[in-house]
C-alpha cells in the first residue's frame, strides 16, 4: 500500500537531471571524463538542493560497469544496488547517529580492504557536521592519503562546523539555493508526467513557499496532490498552505504607514479569525515589507522582485507615501519581533503589540532634510537680524558672563568648607584673606560636620603649628586660625565660611542668619549681627534666648574662644546679605536662560524642527 | 481513550487532508503536525495510527483488535517518543532507539508508526540523528512529528516532513469539551475564554486560582506605573514558583491584549475584561495603545527568560517591572515635550 513520496520518487539519477547546480555537476562530470577525480568531496548547501542525490550519482558514475562515466547507465547491477541502497561497496553513513570516535575507528578498519564488486569503495557520510571533534581528527590521516580504491563523499548543511584540517584535505562544492523559476520548471515537468494541470499562479505560490529547496517544493506538491484533483487552482494552494492574500499585506502596510494602530489590530484579528497561522503571516508580512523597502530604495527599477506588474505599481506607490527611513524602521521593528513571534506560544498578542507600537511611532525626518532646513534657515538669518555680529555680540557675552559668575565662587573658595555647600556667593578673590594671615598657634578648627576638603592641609598645620608655612592652606583656613587672636576684627571671609559651617550643622539657624549682615565693629569675640529694620520678624526669632545661646556656643567652637552675640536693627540698604546675593544669582541665571531661549538662532531651530526648548543647561 | 479521526474537533482542513491521502493511498512517510498547543495534534496522530492499522478498513473502527490496542496504548507497532521522565529534552539515545525500532517490519499491524511529541524538545544532536531516517524510513512505516513551536525545529527536519497545520479550537468546542470532562457550565465558559482555543491553556487556569492571579497581575501593572514600585515588587516577590509565575505572566499577556484592544477602541473578546469589571476600565484609561504594546514586549521577554532560559522567576518579573517603568518615564517626557 505504501506510496513513495515525490521527493524520493523524483530523485535525480543523472548529472543532467540535477536542477540548478550546474556549477557542481559540470565540474564533477568533467573530472570523471578526464580521470581527475579527487579522493574526498564535501557537498554543502541548504536543505533539499541535491547534496545526497549528487553523492549517489557520483557513486554510480564511479562504479558503473561501463567504466567511470559521467552518464551512469542505471541498469547495471552496480547502479541498481546503489539506487536501492543495498550496494556493498557504497557505504552510506548517517554522520549524526554515528558521530563518535569509535564509529570512525570502525570505519577506518574497513578502509584497507578492496571493494567486493565495484571499482571503488565509496564512503558517503551524510550530516557530517555532527561528527565529534575527535571523530574528525581520527579521520585526518585516512582522509589525507586513502588507498587508491577509496573515495569519501561528505554532505552537510553546516560546513562551518567542519574543521579546517578536514576541509583542506577534500574538494569542497557549495550548492546554491534553487531559484523559484527553476523549481517551477521542474514541478511543471513532474505534473505533466502525472497528467495534472495547474495554474501558473498556483505554481508561483509553491515556488515561493519552497524557499530555494527542491525537496520542500516536492513536499508541498505532494500535499497539493494528496487531494487527488486533476486541476489545481491558486486559491486551493493558498488555502492549503495557509498563505494570506497579497491584498491583506498591502492593507496592513498602508495602515502602518498611515499610523492607524486600530486598523492594524483589526486586520490581525480578521486573519486570526479566518484561522491563518500567525507566524506564517508574520513571515509573509516581513517579506512584503522587505519588498517595500526595496521599492523605496531602488525606485522604479524593481522588476527583479518577480511579482506581477500591478503589485509592483502598488509597491512603488506605497513606498512613495512615506520616507525611506520610516520604512526601514518599520521593517526593523517587525523583523526583530518576528523571531519572538515565531517562537512564542502567544504569537497573536506579540504581532498585535508590535504593529500597534510601530504604527504609533511618528514619521522619521531624514537627517539630511533637517540639515537642509537648517541651512535654508541660516541663509534667512541675515535678513531677519541685520548685522548678525552686533546682535550676536552681546548674546555671546551674556552666555559667557553668567557661566563665569557661577564658576567664580567655587573657584575662589576651593578647599574651604563653603566650597562643598551649594550656596553660590560670589566673593571677591582672596585679597583680604591674604592680609589676615599672621602666624598662629593651635590646630585648625575641627567640627564634626567639617567636610573632607580641609583634610589635606591639616597635617602640616598640626605638625608645625604654622599655617603660614603651608602653601596649600586655603584662605578660609588661614582666617579661621588667625581668629583665635582675641578681639581681632571679623572679616567677610570668616563670616561666610562660618555661615557655611553653620549651614552644615544647623541649617535652620543658618537660613535666618543669611538674611543678616555683620557690623564693621564686630570682632571674633563679639559679633554684632545686623538685620534690616523691615525684617524685625527674623531678628525676633534670632533674639530668642535659646537660639542666641546655641549660636554663641557654635561661634565659640568655631573661633575657639567665647563669643558674645548682639543683634542690631539698622538700615542695611544696599549692603548685601547672603540671601540677597543668592536671589541675585538666581535672577542672573534666569536672565541667561531667557537670553538663550530667545536667541534668534535657537528660535530658528525651534521653528525649523517644530520642537520646543524644554530645558536650558548652563555649562561650566 | 483517544478519539477516532472523525472525532477530532475543529480541524477540518487537517483531517480532510489526511483522509484524502488515506483514500488515495498517498500518505507521506513523515508528517509534521504543527499548531498551537492543546488543539488535538497528538490525538490526531493517534487517530491516524488507528486509521492506518485498522483491520476493518477506512478510518479506524474502534472495534478491531488493532484499534483497541491502539486506544489502550499497547499496540506493538505504535511508539510515542517524548522526553524521558523528569527531563525537558528528547535526547539522542531516545532517538537512536526509536530509529532502530522504526527500521523494523511491523509486528502485527500494517505499519509501524513513530510519533515524536513534542518534536521541538529534541536536542540538536537528537534532531540531526533523526534526519536520515526521517528522509527515508523503511517502506511502509510512518513518522509523525508533533510540535507547538515548529519554527524552532531545524530547517533540515522541517524540509523532510509534510506539514499539517492545526488551528485553534473554537470557544464553543473548548467549552463543550470541558463540560464533557464533567466541569460546571459557568466555569467551563470562563475557562474556555482563557483557553484561546487550546484545551491545555484552558485547563491551566482553574477558576479558583484565576482570581488570585488576576489580582496579582493588576498589582504588578498598577504598581509599575505608580511613583514607587513597592507594590509591584512586592507582588514579584510572591512569584517564586516557576509554574505559577508563568501562569501569571500568561494571564498578564492576555490582560494586556484586552487592554490593547480596548484602548484602540475594539470590542472585548474574552471574559477577562468582564470578570475584572471596574479595574479593567481603570487600567484602560491608565495608558496609551503604545504603552500597552511595549508592556506586552516586556512581559513576553520575562516569560521567555523564565521558560526558555530558566531564569529565576522573581528576577525576571522584577526586570519586567523596571522596564515597564522606564518605558513610562519615556512616555512622560515625550508627553511633556509635545505640550
Written account of the structure:
The complex is a heterodimer of chains A (620) and B (339). With 620 residues, chain A is α/β, with parallel strands linked by helices. Helix content of chain A is 55%, strand content 8%. Chain A has helices at 6-9, 22-33, 51-63, 77-83, 101-110, 133-144, 164-167, 180-194, 200-210, 214-225, 234-241, 246-257, 261-273, 278-298, 309-320, 324-343, 347-360, 367-384, 388-412, 417-420, 431-435, 458-464, 475-482, 492-505, 507-513, 536-543, 545-559, 578-598, 600-609; strands at residues 40-44, 90-94, 121-126, 150-156, 171-174, 197-198, 231-232, 517-518, 526-532, 564-570. In chain A, the strands form three sheets. Chain A has a five-stranded parallel beta sheet with strand order 2-3-4-1-5, covered by helices on one side. In chain A, strands 8-9-10 form a three-stranded mixed beta sheet, covered by helices on one side. A two-stranded parallel sheet of chain A has the order 6-7. Chain A is elongated. The model of chain A is unreliable at 385-484 (pLDDT under 50). Chain B has 339 residues and is of the alpha/beta class. Chain B has two domains: 5-165, P-loop containing nucleotide triphosphate hydrolases (Rossmann fold, 3-Layer(aba) Sandwich), CATH 3.40.50.300; 205-338, Up-down Bundle (Zinc Finger, Delta Prime, domain 3). The model of chain B has no long low-confidence stretch (mean pLDDT 85). The longest helix of chain B has 26 residues, at 313-338. At the A-B interface, helix 10, helix 13, helix 16 and helix 17 of A face helix 1, helix 4, helix 5, helix 6 and strand 5 of B.
List the defining traits of the structure above:
heterodimer, A: 620 residues, alpha/beta, Rossmann fold, Helicase, Ruva Protein, domain 3, Zinc Finger, Delta Prime, domain 3, 4 domains, five-stranded parallel β-sheet, 10 strands, B: 339 residues, 2 domains, 16 helices, elongated
Amino acid at each position: 500500500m505504501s506510496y513513495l513520496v515525490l521527493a524520493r520518487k523524483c530523485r535525480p539519477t543523472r548529472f543532467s537531471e540535477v536542477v540548478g547546480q550546474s556549477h557542481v555537476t559540470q565540474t564533477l562530470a568533467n573530472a570523471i571524463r578526464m580521470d581527475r577525480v579527487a579522493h574526498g568531496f564535501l557537498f554543502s548547501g541548504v536543505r533539499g538542493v541535491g547534496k545526497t542525490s549528487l553523492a549517489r550519482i557520483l557513486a554510480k558514475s564511479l562504479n558503473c560497469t561501463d567504466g567511470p562515466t559521467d552518464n551512469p547507465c542505471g541498469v547495471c547491477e552496480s547502479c541498481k544496488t546503489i539506487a536501492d541502497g543495498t550496494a556493498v561497496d557504497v557505504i552510506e553513513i548517517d554522520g549524526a547517529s554515528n558521530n563518535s570516535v569509535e564509529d570512525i575507528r570502525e570505519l577506518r578498519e574497513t578502509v584497507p580492504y578492496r571493494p567486493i564488486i565495484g571499482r571503488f569503495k565509496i564512503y558517503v557520510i551524510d550530516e557530517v557536521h555532527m561528527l565529534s571533534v575527535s571523530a574528525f581528527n581520527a579521520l585526518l590521516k585516512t582522509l589525507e592519503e586513502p588507498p587508491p580504491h577509496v573515495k569519501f563523499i561528505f554532505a552537510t548543511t553546516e560546513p562551518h562546523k567542519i574543521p579546517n584540517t578536514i576541509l583542506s584535505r577534500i574538494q569542497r562544492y557549495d550548492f546554491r539555493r534553487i531559484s523559484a523559476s527553476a523549481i517551477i520548471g521542474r514541478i511543471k515537468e513532474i505534473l505533466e508526467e502525472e497528467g495534472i494541470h495547474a495554474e501558473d499562479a498556483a505554481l508561483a505560490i509553491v515556488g515561493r513557499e519552497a524557499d530555494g529547496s527542491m525537496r520542500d517544493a516536492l513536499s508541498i506538491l505532494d500535499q497539493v496532490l494528496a487531494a487527488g484533483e486533476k486541476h489545481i487552482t491558486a486559491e486551493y494552494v493558498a488555502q492549503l498552505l495557509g498563505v494570506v492574500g497579497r491584498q491583506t499585506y498591502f492593507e496592513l502596510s498602508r495602515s502602518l504607514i498611515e499610523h492607524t494602530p486600530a486598523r492594524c489590530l483589526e486586520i490581525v484579528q480578521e486573519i486570526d479569525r479566518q484561522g491563518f497561522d500567525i507566524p506564517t503571516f508574520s513571515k509573509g508580512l516581513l517579506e512584503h515589507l522587505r519588498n517595500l523597502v526595496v521599492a523605496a530604495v531602488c525606485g522604479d527599477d524593481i522588476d527583479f522582485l518577480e511579482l506581477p506588474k500591478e503589485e509592483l505599481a502598488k509597491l512603488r506607490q506605497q513606498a512613495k507615501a512615506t520616507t525611506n527611513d520610516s520604512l526601514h524602521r518599520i521593517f526593523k521593528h517587525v523583523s526583530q519581533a518576528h523571531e519572538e513571534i515565531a517562537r512564542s506560544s502567544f504569537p497573536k498578542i506579540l504581532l498585535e503589540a508590535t504593529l500597534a507600537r510601530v504604527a504609533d511611532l511618528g514619521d522619521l525626518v531624514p537627517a539630511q532634510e533637517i540639515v537642509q532646513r537648517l541651512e535654508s534657515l541660516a541663509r534667512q538669518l541675515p535678513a531677519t537680524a541685520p548685522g548678525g555680529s552686533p546682535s550676536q555680540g552681546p548674546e555671546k557675552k551674556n552666555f559667557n558672563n553668567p557661566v563665569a559668575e557661577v564658576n567664580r565662587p567655587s573657584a575662589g573658595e576651593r578647599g574651604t568648607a563653603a566650597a562643598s555647600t551649594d550656596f553660590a556667593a560670589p566673593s571677591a578673590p582672596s585679597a583680604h584673606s591674604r592680609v589676615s594671615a599672621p602666624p598662629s598657634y593651635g590646630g585648625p578648627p575641627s567640627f564634626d560636620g567639617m567636610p573632607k576638603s580641609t583634610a589635606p592641609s591639616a597635617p602640616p598645620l598640626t605638625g608645625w603649628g604654622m599655617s603660614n608655612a603651608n602653601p596649600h592652606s586655603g584662605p578660609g583656613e588661614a582666617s579661621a586660625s588667625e581668629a583665635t587672636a582675641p578681639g581681632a576684627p571679623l572679616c567677610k571671609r570668616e563670616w561666610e565660611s562660618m555661615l557655611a559651617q553653620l549651614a552644615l550643622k544647623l541649617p535652620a539657624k543658618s537660613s535666618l542668619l543669611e538674611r543678616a549682615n555683620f557690623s564693621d565693629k564686630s570682632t571674633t569675640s563679639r559679633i554684632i549681627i545686623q538685620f534690616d529694620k523691615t525684617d524685625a520678624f527674623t531678628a525676633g526669632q534670632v533674639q530668642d534666648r535659646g537660639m542666641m545661646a546655641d549660636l554663641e556656643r557654635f561661634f565659640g567652637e568655631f573661633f575657639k574662644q567665647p563669643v558674645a552675640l548682639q543683634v542690631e536693627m539698622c538700615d542695611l540698604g544696599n549692603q548685601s546679605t547672603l540671601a540677597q546675593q543668592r536671589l541675585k544669582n538666581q535672577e542672573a541665571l534666569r536672565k541667561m536662560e531667557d537670553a538663550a531661549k530667545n536667541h534668534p538662532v535657537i528660535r530658528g531651530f525651534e521653528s525649523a524642527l517644530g520642537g520646543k526648548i524644554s530645558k536650558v543647561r548652563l555649562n561650566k | 481513550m483517544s478519539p477516532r479521526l472523525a472525532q477530532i474537533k475543529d480541524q477540518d482542513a487537517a483531517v480532510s487532508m489526511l483522509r484524502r491521502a488515506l483514500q488515495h493511498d498517498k500518505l507521506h512517510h513523515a508528517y509534521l503536525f504543527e499548531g498551537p498547543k492543546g488543539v488535538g495534534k497528538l490525538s490526531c496522530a493517534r487517530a491516524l495510527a488507528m486509521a492506518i492499522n485498522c483491520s476493518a478498513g477506512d478510518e479506524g473502527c474502534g472495534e478491531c483488535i488493532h484499534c483497541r490496542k491502539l486506544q489502550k496504548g499497547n499496540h506493538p507497532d505504535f511508539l510515542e517518543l517524548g522526553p524521558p521522565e523528569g527531563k525537558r529534552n528528547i535526547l539522542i539515545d531516545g532517538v537512536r532507539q526509536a530509529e532502530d525500532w522504526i527500521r523494523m517490519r511491523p509486528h502485527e499491524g500494517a505499519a509501524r508508526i513513530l510519533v515524536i511529541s513534542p518534536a521541538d524538545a529534541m536536542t540538536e544532536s537528537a534532531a540531526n540523528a533523526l534526519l536520515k531516517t526521517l528522509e527515508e524510513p523503511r517502506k511502509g512505516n510512518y513518522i509523525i512529528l508533533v510540535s507547538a513551536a515548529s519554527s524552532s525545529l531545524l530547517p533540515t527536519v522541517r524540509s523532510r516532513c509534510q506539514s499539517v497545520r492545526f488551528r485553534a479550537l473554537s470557544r464553543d468546542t473548548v467549552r463543550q469539551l470541558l463540560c464533557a470532562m464533567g466541569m460546571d457550565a459557568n466555569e467551563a465558559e470562563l475557562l474556555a475564554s482563557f483557553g484561546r482555543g487550546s484545551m491545555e491553556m484552558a485547563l491551566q487556569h482553574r477558576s479558583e486560582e484565576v482570581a488570585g492571579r488576576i489580582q496579582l497581575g493588576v498589582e504588578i501593572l498598577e504598581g509599575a506605573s505608580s511613583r514607587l514600585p513597592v507594590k509591584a515588587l512586592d507582588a514579584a516577590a510572591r512569584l517564586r514558583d516557576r509554574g505559577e509565575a508563568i501562569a501569571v505572566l500568561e494571564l498578564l499577556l492576555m490582560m494586556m491584549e484586552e487592554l490593547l484592544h480596548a484602548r484602540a477602541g475594539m470590542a472585548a473578546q474574552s471574559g477577562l475584561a468582564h470578570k475584572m469589571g471596574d479595574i479593567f476600565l481603570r487600567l484602560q484609561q491608565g495608558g496609551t495603545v503604545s504603552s500597552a504594546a511595549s508592556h506586552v514586549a516586556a512581559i513576553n521577554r520575562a516569560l521567555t527568560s523564565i521558560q526558555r532560559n530558566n531564569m529565576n522567576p522573581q528576577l525576571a518579573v522584577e526586570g519586567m517591572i523596571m522596564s515597564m517603568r522606564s518605558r513610562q518615564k519615556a512616555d512622560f517626557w515625550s508627553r511633556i515635550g509635545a505640550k
